[in-house]
Write a structure and sequence with these properties.
alpha/beta, Rossmann fold, 7-stranded mixed sheet
């Protein structure tokens, strides 16, 4: 039903709860995700959950890719993980996700059914977190997420989609755009700004903790409602201020209005924003058989008793007020149809389904719903009352024809009358007390005695509680126990529908009808008509004022009220013709000189059909005046209606021919119906084939999305690897080190340019065996050394000489470590050590010179360690000490002397 403006059960999260931003993406979703998180601050104050269609056969790189764009912590979801603000949670492959309070619950996905992870999580999050949810749909194919986004909106959350012109694949965001529940269609950058603004408004204006009057000043609040009343023709003045304030502030955040004054200006200038706000305040929270225990009471207790109380031929009158998109109305229609069949009753059903929202009524009228309704309906009801077409379910013709769907404003239009059952659920709770009582009195007036009233489980009867008996207090099902007309507050507009054709029996219509009677009697007595009756435009007799000419005859049995069947046969044709002409031309009709035979005497009759224009309410009634006369002067402007014997015969023959034509037409219609049934059977077969193809297409589309996602991730990874390879190549090139990479069969995988001066290879020699090439090293057994390394994996370091350049080089042989640290080949490096060797030679020469000085010095020399022990002693010092050189080593002077 359409609720003004927002949700009910379950309870919304406590005010201290943060926002949860759920982001659904598919093919082409990586780029907008990166752009979205790039444009968010590091501490936005909300938790983010990313759901993407991923291939079950490949690990996802999504957490690593997102982490490059934000400083928030990015985690792959694990079962039981708790939601925290300023964290990003990514759904892993092969799983679906739900939420219980603050905890994420993973469920492994089976490949037997098409996976809709976005819808599943959006629906779960909406139920648990209500108005603290922001749902976003990004690039992708298919329609996953549309249903869940609608549920988020219905529960008071914010629904946003990426603008199709910025999306690489438009199907997924475009599937949600035709509906009226969206709060914004924005680019990824603007989506980030909108989310930050919404969270900021929530932090600055905690509505659940502050009075609405403190949030929106009265003047601005009245300005906003006045704008809606003026342009959108809807009055929200009598609805609860706190609920309206929450939705208005949400729109402020989405439009990034810096303050309420600016938002009022935007609302004044923008028709689009007025319609979006209006739609926000008219959210329809409904589903098939919502609150199952309540519907079980209706099915098992209320409807059987109600139908049993009606005799065959009577009519069951039902009104579903605020029906929104029609799910509740069709739910009730299903139960009524089942109950009538169970009781085997021959009764007719007139069922009104009304709402103020014309967009929602369009959905109800079409009767087309997405696949999610199969969760709310039993397989038997789904098969009996619905037809599956191209991913949606459409109500069958029989069920659709049970409903009369019409726009109706409970706050302005009069109610329907003589209702056996009225359902008006979860609407009154959003109205202020005065309007609530007005609506309840209206519903009471519309019910017949012993009629049933079905309200929402949070609604009460208030001051008219004594006028109803409880059937079930928990689910608010009541019975009107007496025929009493309560006083009604004046309605601001006239009734939506014209008065019924049966004469009103309530006091409020009696006064108006008495005026009709006064007018009729004035005309009859003034013009002295001998026979006068009042009929409606369906020729139904309403009242007989005078019948002195005995022109009306009544038979036994069920009374006939058609005036053309109550007059004598010769008068039926002129009377029918006059009535039709009066209605068609909307003016009085007078036929004079009508001849007819009665009791063997020819008589003349004047017939007048006229409208009563004295009062507006009488416009739908016709006054029929008969006057039998012996002589009448006919004005030239009057029409004479004469039927002689020949003309009567001709009319009879024409009527016979017309009857034959009708019979032939009926036969043709039956033949066409037979042909149509055959074509319908063929069409059903084609539909079945189409459904199979559609199912196959959905599976292929799902696989294609997964492969595209994997490809996107791999492209990013390839780019990263390319950059890394370039970095390494530049590093090796700048160090002038020769490096050659070989596999375990000594095939060349890669090498640096310096290597070409050592081994005679070129870039075109990649993947060729090293044994095919010569080298310039003084190492004839190079291949044998490398083959031995492949076998024993013992690293080697060998000094070699490049005979071509006479350079001394250090050749190192090490393992090439691959994934999981496996040995996937050989890495050989060649480092030029000419300079190092020159330095070594110079050091050796210096050492030799010093050693020579030490030995041949004419004085005693020694070398002591840090503990003053002799390390080295020349011969002169040993001779001076009268000891041998060996006796000095390792001892101190004190130990020797």
């Amino acid at each position: 039903m359409t609720e003004n403006p927002q949700n009910n059960s379950p309870e919304p999260p406590p005010p201290e709860k943060f926002f949860v931003v759920a982001i659904g993406a598919s093919a082409g979703g990586l780029q907008p995700l990166e752009e979205f998180f790039t444009n968010l601050p590091d501490n936005p104050g909300a938790a983010f959950v990313v759901l993407q269609h991923l291939s079950p056969d490949f690990p996802s790189l999504m957490p690593e890719l997102i982490q490059r764009r934000t400083k928030m912590e990015v985690q792959s979801i694990k079962d039981g993980m708790q939601l925290k603000p300023n964290c990003i949670y990514v759904l892993p492959p092969r799983h679906t996700l739900k939420v219980e309070k603050d905890y994420l619950k993973l469920e492994e996905h089976t490949s037997e059914r098409v996976n809709y992870p976005i819808n599943i999580f959006f629906n779960s999050l909406a139920e648990e977190w209500g108005e603290k949810v922001i749902g976003i749909l990004l690039s992708g194919t298919g329609n996953d997420g549309t249903e869940g986004l609608q549920r988020i909106s219905q529960k008071g959350g914010i629904a946003l989609v990426q603008s199709p012109e910025t999306a690489q694949f438009t199907s997924m965001p475009s599937s949600a755009i035709p509906y009226d529940f969206l709060d914004g269609i924005l680019s990824p950058q603007d989506l980030a700004q909108a989310v930050y603004s919404l969270v900021g408004y929530s932090l600055n204006y905690p509505i659940s903790q502050v009075k609405a009057a403190d949030l929106i000043p009265v003047e601005q609040f009245e300005q906003i409602l006045g704008i809606l009343s003026k342009y959108e023709k809807i009055d929200f003045y009598q609805y609860k201020i706190s609920t309206l304030s929450r939705r208005i502030l949400n729109r402020c955040g989405i439009t990034q209005s810096p303050n309420l004054t600016q938002y009022v200006l935007l609302l004044t200038d923008s028709e689009t924003e007025r319609k979006l706000l209006r739609q926000d305040l008219l959210i329809g929270v409904t589903r098939f058989f919502r609150d199952i225990p309540a519907w079980e009471l209706i099915e098992k207790q209320v409807l059987p008793e109600l139908i049993k109380s009606l005799a065959d031929g009577e009519q069951l009158r039902v009104w579903v007020a605020a029906c929104a998109t029609g799910e509740e109305a069709y739910s009730l229609a299903i139960l009524i149809d089942e109950a009538i069949n169970a009781e085997n009753k021959e009764i007719s059903v007139k069922m009104f389904a009304t709402d103020i929202d014309s967009k929602a009524l369009e959905v109800a009228s079409q009767g087309i719903y997405n696949e999610s309704i199969k969760n709310d309906l039993t397989p038997e009801r789904l098969e009996k009352y619905f037809t599956y077409k191209c991913g949606s379910y459409q109500v069958n013709r029989h069920l659709r024809e049970m409903l009369i769907i019409a726009p109706h404003d409970l706050t302005k239009n009069a109610g329907f009358s003589k209702m056996n059952l009225i359902s008006c659920r979860n609407v009154l709770i959003y109205m202020q007390p005065l309007l609530q009582q007005q609506m309840l009195r209206l519903l009471h007036f519309s019910l017949t005695s012993q009629g049933i009233l079905f309200l929402g489980n949070a609604e009460t009867l208030g001051e008219i509680e004594t006028e109803f008996a409880n059937i079930d207090q928990r689910w608010k099902i009541f019975r009107k126990h007496r025929e009493l007309q309560l006083s009604l507050m004046p309605l601001s507009q006239p009734p939506l529908l014209s008065p019924v054709t049966i004469l009103p029996k309530y006091n409020r219509n009696t006064f108006q009808f008495e005026r009709v009677l006064d007018s009729v009697f004035d005309i009859c007595f003034t013009e002295q008509r001998l026979t006068c009756v009042l009929i409606n435009q369906d020729s139904q007799l309403l009242h007989i004022f005078y019948n002195s000419a005995n022109l009306l005859s009544f038979s036994t049995g069920k009374p006939k009220l058609d005036i053309t069947e109550l007059v004598q046969t010769p008068l039926q044709l002129p009377l029918r013709t006059a009535i039709h002409r009066a209605i068609r031309e909307q003016k009085d009709v007078l036929y004079t000189g009508i001849n007819f035979l009665r009791n063997g005497v020819n008589e003349l009759l004047n017939l007048k059909i006229g409208f009563l224009n004295k009062y507006p309410i009488t416009n739908e009634f016709l006054l029929v005046l008969f006057e039998v006369q012996t002589r009448l002067e006919k004005p030239s402007s009057q029409i004479e209606f004469e039927v002689d014997i020949e003309t009567a015969k001709q009319i009879t023959e024409l009527e016979y021919e017309l009857q034959q034509t009708r019979e032939n037409l009926q036969a043709t219609i039956e033949e066409l119906e037979t042909t149509n049934e055959e074509q319908q059977a063929t069409n059903e077969e084609l539909l079945a084939s189409n459904e199979e193809l559609q199912s196959t297409n959905e599976e292929l589309q799902s696989v294609n999305e997964e492969l595209y996602t994997v490809n996107s991730e791999h492209q990013v990874k390839i780019q990263q690897l390319t950059e890394l390879t370039n970095d390494i190549d530049n590093l090796l090139r700048s160090t002038d080190i020769g490096v050659i990479f070989l596999d375990n069969h000594l095939n060349i995988r890669k090498f640096t340019p310096t290597t070409s001066n050592i081994i005679n290879i070129f870039p075109s020699d990649i993947n060729r065996p090293l044994t095919h090439f010569t080298h310039n090293l003084d190492l004839p057994n190079l291949v044998e050394i490398l083959s031995k390394f492949v076998a024993d994996q013992i690293p080697k370091a060998i000094e070699v000489i490049n005979k071509k350049t006479a350079e001394q080089m250090l050749m190192r042989v090490n393992a090439y470590r691959g994934e999981n640290n496996n040995n996937d080949g050989v890495v050989v490096t060649f480092v030029n050590i000419n300079e190092l060797k020159n330095i070594q030679n110079q050091l050796q020469a210096s050492k030799n010179w010093l050693e020579n000085v030490y030995i041949n010095s004419p004085v005693g020399l020694c070398l002591l360690d840090k503990e003053l022990k002799f390390v080295k002693v020349n011969d002169n010092l040993a001779h001076i000490n009268n000891l041998s050189v060996a006796e000095h080593i390792g001892k101190t002077g004190q130990e020797l002397f």
